Amino acid sequence: IRAVGKESLVELDRQYMWHPMMPYSASQQPMVVAHGEGPYITTEDGNRYLDAMSGLWCVNLGYSQKSLAEAASEQMLEMPYYPLTHTHKPGIRLAEKLNQWLQGSYRIVYSNSGSEANEVSFKIARQYYEQMGEPNRWKIIARYRGYHGNTMGALAATGQFQRKYKYEPLAPGFLHVPPPDCYRCPFGHQAGLCQHECANYYEQVINWEIPETVAAIIIEPVISGGGVFVPPPEYLQRVREICNRYGVLMIVDEVICGFGRSGQPFGHQNYGITPDIVTMAKGITSGYLPLSATAIRDELFDVFRHDSEYAHLRHVNTFGGHPVACAVAIKTLEIMEEEHLVDRAAQLGQQLKTKLTPLANHLHVGDLRHFGLLAGIELVADKETKAPASPEFTAAVIAECKKRGVLIGKNGDTVRNFNNILTLCPPFIITDDELDHIVTVVKESIAKTTEQGVTA
Ligand code: PMP
């Protein structure tokens, strides 16, 4: 490959690559990211940014953990690859460690992405009911606004229309219930003054569909990427009770909420529930290598604990549980344990919440939502009507933050023009000062965008 300067890299990118969720326009130049250090990234042209999104919600330990690179290199030299149709030490040791983090007894299946971990969970739920002699239980209930991945099943589970409508028909058998959106309650209630209709809705759908046809629900502890929708405290317990009542398995998607993001090892642990299946990815290696896992409660696994061919796991993949990725995951979890980073995430999350609170008074800030070190800022044109801020306003705030050296994210619903939720998901290794700086920049950027008269 030729040595090329920054300009030609962009040209080559334009010539050869197609990026997700990026407009194909000459005016929109992608950042050519060259270097990472702590929570900062530097581009080929020398701009440095504080990454308040941890890449894509995953680089929880920041960009310069040398010991992760060493763990990868040691494993690569020792035994670079073998499939998990047999077994290997990093895979076994990681499975043991995941059980400690899950605080329960689970059986682990590895794969390569959050999407695939969810696909595995759907297969296991259906295979479980096949084994139990209830083959008609194959429906899976998810939520509007939730995101569960990009593959035909995980996308079918996703409740964000803008991501799926170009690719339909997707996998059949997925249903959706309304999200616990306490700001725009789908049932018209005020936050805190409801009977948790959004949780009870599961029961109605299960009954309408006939319980004997429903295999599982899939749920994030908090809808994270979809806009940081934090449910009422009782919500997950209520959903767990409904699942128990109808024999429906509860799959908890911890792809973003897991590995400390919520201030607990896993997001669901904040709500005192035990999932039947847990899916995880992203933070498992702090984003350093692709790896995901699906954990099945040991008691459920009992039905597969025999040699009949029907009990075999049919989901085979080449790279799932790659030994190098497993070695990096073990090291990631060790670093978090040694440096008490789950507690640190909880502490930083509390600080973030306190510091963002005054923003609630801003003319265009409709709602502030938090879950550990994860925040959503919902921008509105009008606080009274809750009309969402325009995509131009939200984009201008993000551009202003970038100008000031801080990268933040956004989410919403581009089809209905609800693309108005700013997201913050910084790495756990940031200092108090860096956290202050992120908040200051976000506040200044919202103020500047308003002053400039961008139509909200
Ligand atoms: N589940 C959730 C909650 C996610 O946020 C994501 C990705 N953002 C996925 C699943 C899919 O993960 P991946 O992109 O690794 O396939």
Automatic annotation (TrEMBL):
Keywords assigned by UniProt, alphabetized: Aminotransferase, Pyridoxal phosphate, Transferase
Transferase in keyword set: yes
Transmembrane segment boundaries: none
Molecular function as annotated in GO: pyridoxal phosphate binding; transaminase activity
One Pfam family hit: Aminotran_3
Keyword Transferase in record: yes
Sequence similarity: Belongs to the class-III pyridoxal-phosphate-dependent aminotransferase family.
NCBIfam families, sorted: PRK07678.1 (NF005812)
PANTHER family: AMINOTRANSFERASE, AMINOTRANSFERASE CLASS-III
Protein name per the record: Aspartate aminotransferase family protein
Organism of origin: Alicyclobacillus acidoterrestris (strain ATCC 49025 / DSM 3922 / CIP 106132 / NCIMB 13137 / GD3B)
